[in-house]
Amino acid sequence: MKTNEFNDITTFQYILFISQVQIGIGIITLPSDLAEVASTDGWISILLGWVLANVAGLLILQIMKRHPNESIFDLLIRYLGKWLGTLGSGLFILYSLFVFMITLYAAIHITQTWVLPQTPNYLLMILFIIPKHMLAQHGIRMLGRYAEFVGVSMIIMLPLFFIAMREGHWIHLLPVLKEGWLPVVKGVKTTILSFLGFELAFILYPFLQKKQHAASGMIVANTITMLVYMLVTIACYVQFNPYQIKTYIWPTLDLFETIEFPFIERIEVVFSAFYLFIISTSGIPYYFTSAFGISQLLRKQNHRQVILVLSICFIILAFVFNPTFFHVSAIQKWGAKVGMYVAYFFPVCFWLYIVTTERIQVRLNQ
User: Is 139 left (phi over 0), alpha (psi -120 to 50) or beta?
Assistant: First the structure.
């Protein structure tokens, strides 16, 4: 795959690209998900998940360094052959489409719950798919700029979490490790799923201008995500008691219900509207990845036609498929399981396969 100066991204865009994809859904659900497993010690699980995400992300970069101008679709065909490589590429494309669909329907349900409760699914689908289509069709550089915009804008919302903690009770966090290490270790499974998004380095690496900064950029991106998760989780744990936090579906939005300003009411509605930008940065990159992968398999230089076809398919889908909240939750759980294999197990297996085949080739040449 060839890249040019008009579709590459800077290191800063690369960092925000990865962190914004990760923060997407986890920022509003992670506190309650962790509380069910690790109680108020869930913040320790976040630190352990950050370590594992860095290990997996750096392993992906080790794979990509062997052929820096090729994406995962090129590498799969190079190392697995035409048929197996095409099959692997197809599975990666399906995974990307699946994750995009999850973020899309999650955004629709949050909008219906907090902002537009009387608006039908198909109208929201049309409203959401049009800007996503417009961004995805303009390529990786446009997505990098959009990640910059949303990432910098999100800084404005972060002080709200500190304001929420002013009326909280820090004693909720004590004692540390109240139930031992076992719940904390179990909570790691939840946190590593919230760090999903770094696997897009398989796609981003060929477009990165300064590839020597890829590893440090990966660590910085994961660290930003970790700090945001720590802030959100601790704010929720401080504000809500250990039993109350488990009852909330979207604890971050419920957290903002406790904040009052003399000049604005229902700050949670404002945040939920802004959150649509955050979750869009989580879904659109997967949308682009799926269209980019399909165009690669079809040997097309332009992915815009693929994006158009996919957008039309999603609009049609909205008329025939109207999932409830429980359906979306079930789909998210399936997506989390698939994401664990794609982001954590697949890089390890693929790296071991590459290293083994390279050593065999060296011995045969000798």
Answer: left
